[in-house]
Amino acid sequence: MTAEVLHIGEVARRTGLSVHALRLYERAGLFAGEVRRDETGRRVYSTWDVEWLGNCVKFRASGMPLATISRLARLVREGTGNEAERLELLREHGRHIAAQLAQLQDCLDLINGKVAAYERHLAADGTGEPWQQQPRPGTVTPAP
Amino acid sequence: MTAEVLHIGEVARRTGLSVHALRLYERAGLFAGEVRRDETGRRVYSTWDVEWLGNCVKFRASGMPLATISRLARLVREGTGNEAERLELLREHGRHIAAQLAQLQDCLDLINGKVAAYERHLAADGTGEPWQQQPRPGTVTPAP
DNA sequence: CTAGGTGCTAGACCGAGGTCTAGGTCAACC
DNA sequence: GGTTGACCTAGACCTCGGTCTAGCACCTAG
């Protein structure tokens, strides 16, 4: 079967990235395989590229900087022999994600607490304990 | 008990924000209570401000833009009567966090899969199935 | 032949969120 | 009196990740 040939617009549609972003990603070295050109100079992508980009999109969504994806891409491009390095890079980002999960959970707890307080407040007319600035004295010390 | 008076440096140390960031946050309207000044014009913060900033830090860490925190701060500043609005804002951000959690989990699954593959690959010398470009033909179609 | 669609490059521009600098005030210490 | 340290303002600057524009090349259909 002939390898499927995709042009930039089609890849953009499939990945959800803009054509601008695709060209930017290429300049930034995010592709794990040189992007070839057809006779007239247009970029030609394979379905494998699209798959790879799918991973990139997930990496980006999880906060991996372009520079890091680029490092990974280089390792993959360089081929067999650096698997340990790739592994470490992935593990590192895994730890990063774990940290983010914890932070998000932390904030979610905060929000759920406040939401519950406001719900109580709204339902029971003042029973909740929403954010409340304590009454502000005009100056630093209470009236003498 | 006299309200504790904090200056910007101390607040920076307590919140982990830079003094620059604190001034930026003030300009951006993130404070839920006007920041007062002492006789010589230096900013004076209360422990309540520090608490509030702690929440802001969590909000930021979970991706809430300064503009949104600012909206929330305005609501709190305006006082009682807009609790329903605050509630909706918080709920909205809660949904946003849930979406992020899902994305992070998705990426984490991807990474764990790859990590497992590379581990197998490294341990069993080639058994894994790491990222592998299929052999690239010189041109688009295989040699005719 | 012309128009429309798709692609190309180089480079300008953008918004978010900070960070840093210059130049100044003030209070305290030696 | 001089120096040090914390603070002030206004505004320049930075990174990141894109987005958009100008000006051009191709191909295909009407």
Any descriptors?
elongated; two-stranded antiparallel sheet; 3% strand; disordered C terminus; mainly alpha; DNA-binding; homodimer; 5 helices; 2 strands
What structural class should be given to the helix and strand makeup of chain A? mainly alpha
E-strand count of chain A? 2
| H/E element sequence of chain A | HHEEHHH
Shape of chain A: elongated
Q: Note the total helix count of chain A.
A: 5
Gyration radius from CA atoms of chain A, angstroms:
25 Å
Oligomer designation:
homodimer
Overall average pLDDT of chain A: 89
Give the N-to-C terminal Cα separation of chain A. 89 Å
User: Strand order, biggest sheet of chain A?
Assistant: 1-2
Which stretches of chain A are poorly predicted, pLDDT < 50 over at least 5 residues?
Answer: 137-144
Main sheet summary of chain A: 2 strands, antiparallel
Share of β-strand residues of chain A? under 5%
The biggest chain-chain interface is: A-B, 52 and 52 residues
Provide the helix percentage of chain A: 55-70%
Summarize the structure in words:
The structure is a homodimer. With about 140 residues, chain A is mostly helical. Chain A is built from 5 helices and 2 strands, in the order ααββααα. The first copy, chain A, has a two-stranded antiparallel sheet with strand order 1-2. In chain A, a hairpin with a 5-residue loop joins β1 (about 35) and β2. The longest helix of chain A has about 40 residues, at about 85-125. The model of chain A is unreliable at about 135-144 (pLDDT under 50). Chains A and B meet through α3 and α5 of A and α3 and α5 of B. The first copy, chain A, binds a DNA duplex (30 and 30 nucleotides) through α2.
